[in-house]
Write a structure and sequence with these properties.
mainly beta; six-stranded antiparallel barrel; 12 strands; disordered C terminus
């Protein structure tokens, strides 16, 4: 069974806290969602699948090459810095040049947030993978934060691919699923998302309908 997917590109402004109707404190992330414009609508007949492409963020037209400029001109919109394509069951409700804003989502709706996570640089196994580390007793040398054994000497005589070891941490595309939209401010064009989302302040994030969550609030 498919699902009608909706999404917006926006900017992470930071975190704060608000109070709900029961006077309980709720930590929220503020996202300036949109405005986005529809730059392409794909159909099953022409492209083999249904999807909608949206653009976000202004860019100097002089920095856009001719193929990209023709793409935006065909949609009748000014060039945009970021583009993303969302697959959906029915893309006929979208039209070229249509503007999408924060009112696309409703309070209580579940969403997935995709962004590039904060870069942590080179990290050890305890920070990167949550290893316990070695014991703190007298028998342990100065290797308390080391990973321990990474493989047998004679059998298998090598290190398996994919073994969790120290290395670069963060700075990768990641998605946090099933977050709840706490509130929507259509005047300011912001979403209040309950909890934390990937990326630093100022990061470009994609807010879209939850792939695995319930459809609560999706009909609005």
């Amino acid at each position: 069974m498919g699902k009608q997917m909706k999404g917006l590109l926006g900017e992470k402004l930071g975190m704060t806290q608000v109070f709900d109707e029961n006077n309980r404190m709720v930590p929220v992330t503020v996202v300036a969602a949109g405005p986005c414009v529809v730059t392409q609508v794909r159909s099953v007949d022409v492209d083999g699948y249904a999807a909608v492409q949206i653009g976000y963020g202004a860019v100097d037209p002089r920095r856009v090459n001719k193929p990209e400029g023709g793409h935006f001109a065909k949609a009748g919109v000014t060039p945009r810095r970021f583009l993303v394509e969302l697959r959906t069951d029915d893309a006929t409700e979208y039209t070229l040049g249509q503007e999408l804003a924060a009112d696309l989502f409703a309070p209580g709706q579940q969403v997935d947030i995709t962004a590039t996570s904060k870069g942590k640089g080179n990290a050890g196994v305890m920070k990167r993978h949550g290893f316990k580390g070695l014991g703190a007793g007298h028998g342990t040398q100065r290797k308390h934060r080391s990973p321990g054994s990474i493989g047998g000497c004679a059998t298998p005589g090598r290190v398996f691919k994919g073994l969790r070891m120290a290395g670069r941490m963060g700075g990768v595309r990641t998605t946090t699923q099933n977050l709840t939209v706490h509130a929507v401010d259509t005047d300011k064009g912001v979403l209040l998302i309950k909890g934390a989302i990937p990326g630093p302040r100022g990061a470009v994030v994609l807010v879209r309908t939850a792939a695995k969550g319930s459809a609560k609030g999706a009909e609005q």
